[in-house]
Structures are given as C-alpha cells and as structure tokens.
Amino acid sequence: MLRTLGRKVFGAIALSLFAMPALADQVSHFTLDNGMEVVVIEDHRAPVVTQMVWYKIGRADEAPGHSGIAHFFEHLMFKGTKEVGPNEFSAIVEKQGGDDNAFTTEDYTAFFQRVAADRLDLMMKLEADRMVNLNMSEEDVKTEREVILEERGQRVDSDPGSLLQEQMGAAQFLNHPYGIPVIGWRQEIAALTRDDANAFYKAYYAPNNAILVVAGDVEPAKVLAMAKEHYGPLPPSDKIKPRVRPQEPPQLAERRLVLRDERVAQPYVARSYLAPERNSGDQKEAAALTVLAELLGGSGTTSVLTRALQFDSHVAVYSSAYYTDVSVDPDSFGLVVVPADGVSLADAEAAMDKVIDQFLKDGPKPEDFARIKTQIRASEIYSRDSAGGLARTYGAALATGLTVQDVQDWPTVLQSVTPEDVMAAAHKVLNRNNAVTGWLATPEAAQ
Amino acid sequence: MMLRIALFMLALATPLRAEINIQQVTSPGGIKAWLVEDHGIPFTSLAIDFKGGTSLDAKGKRGAVNLMTALIEEGSGKLDSQGFAAARDALAADFKFSSDQDAVSVSAKFLTENRDQAMALLHDALVNPIFDQASVDRVREQVLSGLRSDAKDPSTIAANLERARTFGDHPYGSDGSGTIESVTALTRDDIIAAAKESMALDRITVGAAGDITAEQLGALLDTLFAGLPATGAPQPGRVVPMIKGGITVQSFPGPQSTVMFGQGGINFDDPDYYAASILNEIIGGGRFTARLMTEVREKRGLTYGIGTSLANFNHSEVLLGQFKASNDKVAEAIKVIREQWALIAQKGVSQQELDDAKTYSTGAYPLRFDGNSRIASILVGMQTLGLPADYPKTRNARIEAVTLDDIKRVAARLIQPKDLHFVVVGQPTGVVDE
Questions:
Q1: Are A93 and A67 in contact (CB under 8 A)?
Q2: What value of ipTM does the predicted structure carry?
Q3: How far B6 CA lies from chain A's nearest CA (Å)?
Q4: Is A74 tagged catalytic?
C-alpha cells in the first residue's frame, strides 16, 4: 500500500524460497543502446500490466554517514518533475485506476505500477521522465524526511523484534555494509539534505543502471518499441561503477546478544549464519542451501526442527528456517525458535543446537527429500498464476547480478540437488563460529 | 507538454469493463458454486466460506472455532498430523484454513494431475478430522503464545478496545481468538462441537477458478462435502454500533501511538452505498492522493500512513480508520482528522475529487481479476454480499452514476463529527480521555 521498505522478515523470506521463473517462451529479453535492460513476461489471462523499473542501487551502495539515503530517495522520486507536480505521479496513476508503489532493499530500489494494459505507454512516459528530470523542493524534502522518521518509528523503533534484527545484522557484518539497516540509523536520516539527494540522483539514476520489467497482457515487440521511444533517448551515465564492496574478514568467534524490552510478550531465539548467495552461472551451493532451509524449517509440521521441537518434545511453539538466496554479496541463513511456555531461552537454544548437530550426523530422510522435490516442481506451476510475482523474481535477480538464463536454470539446479550437496552446504554454513545468536527477552527474564 | 495532452485523452477513454465470465454451477447433489474457467495453467483454486465463523462460539467457549480451525489440518481419517502433512505435500496441494467473525474459510490450490487425491484428502480434513488430544494441546499452546503476544501488541490492543466499545456483548465485541482463560479451558469435546456447529451444509459458499470444467466441479463438490452435517448453530442477530464520540487513551510504552478511529457505517443494501463507498475512497481509500493521506502525511509529515474503510460485516457496519504517529504528533493528527470530518460533513467534496475517485475505482476494478486464487476468493465475496453473477459487467456503471449531490447527501448523513471516536494506544502528548 505505502512506499515501503524491503527487509528481511522471517516469514516473508520463507515464502520466496521457491521463487520460480515463468515458462521460457513467455519471457523476452532485450538491451537498449543506452544500456537499459528490458524483460517482458507475457500473461494474457487478464487485461492487466505491471511495469517495474529496478535500479541497481541499494542501502549497501550508500556513502558512509548517509545511511538511509537510498530509501529516502525512493520516496523523493514521487516529488515531481518539470512536467509532473509534487505527488502528481501517484495521482495520475490512480486516475487511470492503477496502483503504484516502490521499495528499497540492501541491493536495489524498485518502482512499479499496475494498470490496465492499454495504459502502459503513459506509465513508461512518466517513469522515464522521473529517471532524469526530478525537481523536488526544499519543503517537500523536509516533510518527506518527517514521514520517513515516522516510518522508522513504526517499523523499527516500535517493534522489539525489528530492533533485535537490526542489532543482529550489525553484529553479523563487521565490515560489509549489509550491517547497516535499509531504513538507516535515525540520526543519519535526520541529517539527510536536498543536496545529498540530488547528488545521489545524479550518481545512480540512469538507464545503464536500470532494468525495465513489464509483465502482463502485452506483446514483446510492442513493449520494446515503446521502451525505445521513452527510455531510449535517455543518456547513460559514465559514473556507474562495478559494485565492489568491502567484504567480511574470516569470523573467528561466535557473536551473541540479548535484547531486553518491556514490550516483549513472546521471547525467542534467532540464529543467523553468514551464507553464500546465488551467483551467475554458479547457483549449486545456493540451491543446496535453499533445500536445506526447506528441510530444516520450511513446514509447520514435517520439517526437522518442527518435528523435533514441537512433536517429539514440547520445547517450542514455533520454529522456522530461512535463507536469503538473491543478493549481491553473501548474506544470511537463519533459524528461529519460539520456546513453549515455561521453557527458557537457554534451553530452547540448546535444544535447537542438538537438532542441528543430529541433522549434521544423520542427513535428510529420503521421504522428506522426495517431498521437497515435488513441491519445487509444483511451485513452477503455481508461480505462473501471478505475473506481478514473476516480474519481481526477474527484477530482483537481474538487479543483483544474475541473468535471465540463471533465473530459468534455477528450477533445474534445484531439482539436481543431492542429499550430499545439502550436507556439504550444511557442514560449511551451520557453524556457530560463523553466526550471530540473538535472544529477544523480557526485562525480568534474567537467565 | 505532450504528457498532459496524453492524460487528457485518456481521461476521456471509456472505463474498462471486467470481461470475466462467471458460471453458476449446481452439483448433482444440489451444492451451488461460482466458477471462472481458465485452462491456461494446470491447477485449480478453490475458496469456501462457512458462514458464521467465530461468532458461533458457544457460551463460555470463546476461541473454540478459532482453535478448531487451526486443528483441521492436524490429522484426519487414518492419518495423524505428520501423515496428513506428508500426504498433502506429496501431492503439492496447498490448503489454508482460517476463521474470522463472519466465516470459517478454506482456500485450496491443487494440481490438475492429482486433483481427485487432493480433494479426497481435503474431504477427510473437513469431514473426518481426528482432533487428537496431543494435537489439541500442542496447537492450543500456539494460540496461547499468540494471545500473549497480542496482549503487548498496540495494534491488537487498539482493535480490541474499539471492538468492545462498538459492539459490547455481541460476538463482534470481543476477539474471536478468545482469552488466555477461555482457551486454556477448552476441551477436545468443545473442539468437536465447534466443528459440527460451524461447518455445515446450510452455510456454504464456494468459488472456483482455473483448470476445471463446470461438470468436473459439480462432481467434486458432492464428493468434497459428503458427510458434513446438514445444519449448524444459528447465526447471531444484528447489532447497532454503540460508538459515542470522544477519545480513549490506553497507556503503552514506545515512541509512537497506534490510533484507531471510527463511527457507524452504512448497509450494503442501502441505495446510497455506492456513493458512500466513493466517499470513503476520497477520504481514506488506498490511494496516496486520498484526503487524509494528503492532509496528514503529504502536507504535514505526521504519519507514514493513514486510511479508512467501510467495514461491512454480516450483522453490522462501521466506518473505521487507523494510523500510527509519534507521541508528540498524535494531538495534531487528531485535530486535522476532526477538521476534515466536519468539513466533509458540511460541504461534501469537490467535483475533481469525485471524478478522480471514480476513474480510479472504475479503472481499478477490472484489474482485480488476475490470477486463479484472487478470482476464487472474489467469487465468494460477491456471493456473500448477494450480488448477481453479471455484477462485474454492471458495477462500473453504478459507480459512474454517483453524482456530487449524491456524495453531498451521503456525507451529511454518514459523516458524524460528534460520533467520531478515537482509541489511542501509546503515550501521546497532550491527548487525554474525553
């Protein structure tokens, strides 16, 4: 609904574990002369189209001291150009019956509109216009900064679980910028200026740093012609550099933290391991980790953690595993255990580690492995029901260095994962010296 | 320049009609369903509502229907929890069970290649759930964990306060999940009774979309529901919202306050309902350009988001809104909302606002019908409201017919500044009970 912030949420990540491509013959891929990539996904079942423009600029690309500017700037993209007044962008889309919004993560910023298919030309015109002609007033920048401080208050400062996540991220990454939250630190958001925003815009918003994804009731040749007309004339920037970021040094010691807050009702243990991501042409290890997350915590009934902690014993009321497969640099593989009433966090964590140790000895059960392979195959079918979802899958992949081919290879790579692959990845990643453990606790629960 | 000309032309374009073909299916056994056939992708989405939901909890058994719903997938027929989940996952079928104040809802997704097996499994879950004591105890702990979290969640605290003030002793006046005490006291027999009373043949609404023909769906319905009881518990009666204007503050730690505001709504059968729905769209619908988003967020930066909705339940209706704001900004936000309420009640809205809301609403409507799962759920919603199957073809004309005079009349009648009540959960500066 609102201009929002992409972030790692336990549940949300689990849902995207099997983000699948469309059938290859539904997808076309072009590159304009100015370097802008274009992906078209056809779905002719309803007269609807989604346009997304993805910029390869995210939180982790910001200058030190300017945390949150990528997300702040995402909001400012709605503040008007010479042709379109402040906030008029959304008004125009809404007058056409469309919805529009945007989101920012560590690695990218994306803008989208969902409209009737015959309004695509106008959407492209508007999106191309604000790629180069943004013209925001001092007053609008000031008011929007207040909105973002409210957003931070709502999403992070009012939610102890989000605060723990922020602290764990900061502990996980000693050197890599993923350690700073996407929305930014409060004092740095408060200091961002219009000049900062304009400098950021000039440096990163250009066709050769952008990907256009159009999904819905459209013909690829017509989309390409339209894209050439609207985006084609925009000049590429010569300032776009490869995204080389400081990397993590070897982790030598376990990292642990406890966040106590009077607003916590249900304490839990979270564990986050540093884990490799999908790389172009090399997705095998990430596929093994995806299957591992599904085996350990993908089902509320049959996964390894759930069975051990909720059925064979009554240590937990909830357990889960998640893995971030799409990112520019290594990110995280995580576990969460919510203890049953009367079970301490220490006991819950010990039980969780016992399950992991046992899994590392025993490996997956053949029937669990077979079941997950069936679900991967079915996900390919179900994913085709949402053209907008497919647009996100392609956009996120291309904005983090993967190719259309990588996206289309992904189901096959997942299907080819063997139990041995899973165990090799598990032994490499599930190591407490490679991890952060966080406790979300009540003030009185001194354990 | 070009841009504005293009806009002008599009504004004159005829609004889209939803070209969706709804078939009304009656099974050989007499069960009715609506269907949108689409053989593009080899799976089917099914949405089922059993009318009543948590409002059918027996006296003293608050939370029974909610806990029962959470237990449906925990084993049926010869299968225990693990066996059921393994069977479902081996078919790659997806079943979701939920309940609210008006329905127990089932949404299912299954592949064409194993449709019969998937439906046999769902049938077992609906008709032969085992509700074994171990599962009851395990899932009860999950519900209790949720209730403990709710007790410290400002949004839930605000919703519960608002609910109680509006609906009193009616089932709508309390949380359908129950309380720590009521859920702790529920027995296996209570769960079995809740299933019988809330999932019966006399209260079924079905929507289906995807790779299935009318004939196949008809056969499927008879098999799926065979063995359900013919009747269940009576539905609760109507309730008139008891909202009185003012402010209720509930102290809660944190940098922001969560605010819910509300007053009485308008019945779906009221001739002015369409005008009222457009009016709500203008005040606080889902658009960035809605009146309250403009006044509270865009102009003043007092919140990240604010919205309102016409909440039409089976047995009552209210107009509700919500926002979150820093504690020192709540007083100003409330003042702005009250000013807008008074202004709209007195003067209505502008022609431009009406035109924009209409083009949005008529343009957005056909966009809803994309994807089998969305369509199946919309089909259930339409039937619940008593709409005809050709409604998607006539709906935009009803919106188009709303005039500025209609809006002015409905604003004067619906928008009641003296009845507007705010529940504030937080530590707001300069806001006290009134």
A1: no
A2: 0.86
A3: 7
A4: yes
